[in-house]
Amino acid sequence: MDEFFVDSVQHSFDGRPVLNNVYLKCGVGEVVGVLGRNGCGKSTLLKIIFGTISPHYKHLRIDDKIVSKGFLTGEFAYLSQSFFIPHYLKLGVVVKLYTNKYQNLLLKLPVFRDNLNEKIGSLSGGYRRLAETLLMIYSDAKYVLLDEPFSQLSPFLIEEIKTNINLMLSYKGFVITDHYYQHVLNYASRTILLHNGCNYNINNLDDLRLHGYLPSMLH
Ligand SMILES: Nc1ncnc2c1ncn2[C@@H]1O[C@H](COP(=O)(O)OP(=O)(O)OP(=O)(O)O)[C@@H](O)[C@H]1O
């Protein structure tokens, strides 16, 4: 079965509960959206799946195998909220470091094709974010966890990210957190909301109002 799931996720920081019995599933061909107010634990959940936070409890299965940390399997890529590739590396070098199987596809995209000799730090903030996101989308990983891939990006670049995810969707599953809730809701195959440490299935804006993510007067 080409999917991963994590359930019974429980985690506290300094005795303060953040996640309490959270469940998330994502299969190849799916984009799963994760919404939630600031500080509700979206990044924590992605880091727990990836393996850089060890929670108090979780049960993680990838393709029917129980695993302790996602990154140890080589099947996960994780885009953090902040820039993570050293600014002095040239795009031509970065492509070789982060991609293999899908490298040729990535090299056809203008931000890489036209800037191979440029340092990634010389790109504008939005294009640097786009480049890092595309590197995760075209990595070898089967499951790609994207923490706020749309923030800082103009509508044109947001569409470029969606287009490239669509191109890889038959090979991969994607989990996306973002505060651009309309983009997430309209684009994801399924969306969950993290609230009070638990997860709720979300189908429309009314569900987001019901669980207090949206003020009741906002459309
Ligand atoms: N290393 C840490 N030590 C202590 N508390 C932490 C740590 N990391 C996160 N937290 C706390 O855990 C809670 C969840 O943080 P997290 O970054 O997962 O939220 P988020 O939903 O991703 O928020 P945002 O939408 O603002 O990015 C917050 O209250 C945060 O302050």
UniProtKB/TrEMBL annotation:
<dbReference type="InterPro" id="IPR027417">
    <property type="entry name" value="P-loop_NTPase"/>
</dbReference>
<protein>
    <submittedName>
        <fullName>ATP-binding cassette domain-containing protein</fullName>
    </submittedName>
</protein>
<dbReference type="GO" id="GO:0005524">
    <property type="term" value="F:ATP binding"/>
</dbReference>
<feature type="domain" description="ABC transporter">
    <location>
        <begin position="4"/>
        <end position="218"/>
    </location>
</feature>
<dbReference type="InterPro" id="IPR051782">
    <property type="entry name" value="ABC_Transporter_VariousFunc"/>
</dbReference>
<dbReference type="InterPro" id="IPR003593">
    <property type="entry name" value="AAA+_ATPase"/>
</dbReference>
<keyword id="KW-0067">ATP-binding</keyword>
<dbReference type="InterPro" id="IPR003439">
    <property type="entry name" value="ABC_transporter-like_ATP-bd"/>
</dbReference>
<keyword id="KW-0547">Nucleotide-binding</keyword>
<keyword id="KW-0813">Transport</keyword>
<dbReference type="Pfam" id="PF00005">
    <property type="entry name" value="ABC_tran"/>
</dbReference>
